[in-house]
Amino acid sequence: MKIAVAGVGYVGLVTAVCLAEVGHHVTCVDVDSKKIELMKSGKSPIYEDGLENLMNKNQERLVYTTDYKKAYQNANVIFVGVGTPERVDGSANLDYVYKVCENIKESVDDNKIVVIKSTVPIGTNDDIEKRLNENSKIRFYVVSNPEFLAQGSAVHDTFYPSRIVVGVEDKYSEEIMRQVYQPLIESPYNAPYLTMDRKSAEMVKYASNDFLALKISYINEIANFCEKIGADITEVAKGMSYDSRIGNKFLDAGIGYGGSCFPKDTSALHWLSQAMDCELKTVAATIEVNKLQRLKLFERWREDFGNNIKDKTVAVLGCAFKPGTDDLREAPSIYNIELLLNYGVKVNVFDPIAEKNVYLLFEDRIHYCSNIDEAIKGADAAFIMTELQEIVDYNLSYYKKLMKNPYIYDGRNCYSLENVEKSDIHYYSIGRRCIK
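The structure assignment produced for this chain is given below.
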């Protein structure tokens, strides 16, 4: 089948490349000519494990272009995977989605299926179909097909999804979408395939992401309480995880969630619920807890050092919001680096994958290090913001050996307390006793 995909970000590009891998002919469309030229050379504009290899493997079935008119006209199905960033008021900005749909409408002269993979508020797909078919001589069929990809494992998640959710309002769309996904429904992938109405499909996406964000904020609040009463959150979470109703996912206490999905999706659903006069109080609480959680390390450091932090040096270990990605969107590290700079603190940064993106934000205001040793040498404190494997495997004795003041503030609970006790360092982690 001939497919066009609008947008070459995480959602669009991963979707396009994986659909090509299972046999479809896919044209990737984007307004950024530099990205298009980069992909034509076999390079991916985003860091995602396995993606670049698949791009090169499927060169004969992948086309990259800025010529949206030709791409949309020649396609049987058009996927829309552009961003829906958060507005100042918390609502989702749909300008990019609507612009793509306008381009589709002006480009084609036969019936088309338009699949919205972008995360959009409930009812958006209905509105898009109305706009597309208004004063049109051809028929547009709009499908809601939310994505459930985790950055760092997006390729695997596309081939082996927890479920494929397709929201349709007509039999024709339902039949075509099943043809599109048939290679993933069949062996060896055996993906669960769910068909429902469009509004329910839109809601599945928000309800899922917001529930996971709620789970993270909940365990972080329990962790903060554990610190007060002397309990250990790792033991508490382990005990909880054996309950099949709770499970063992998203129970790692830390400094909060970030990334492209949870922050904007919680804000968007909260905004929509208020607009509908049906505020979701649990979602509001999730957002508030997360805002406070991401500053835990800085606040504890200030508590330990008092106001005497100007001209101190802090090593920030890990910057991306999670391992295996270079994505800094809503990453707790970014808020902390900015805060440290505002207080006159010197900042050393270590993140081999995300360093280029960090430089785009801070340029020469901070020092970039090629390894952990360099980052912590002579430092007064180290903030662990991302559980990079290099950090998890790091020899604890080097903190004592290389730092001016071996004060470690671990926002991801990378080390066992038993090992820390042997290392003669000051160690604060989330939801566990502090070792001095």
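Interim note for the steering committee: The chain is about 45% helix and 15% strand. Residues 256 and 290 are 5 Å apart (CA to CA).
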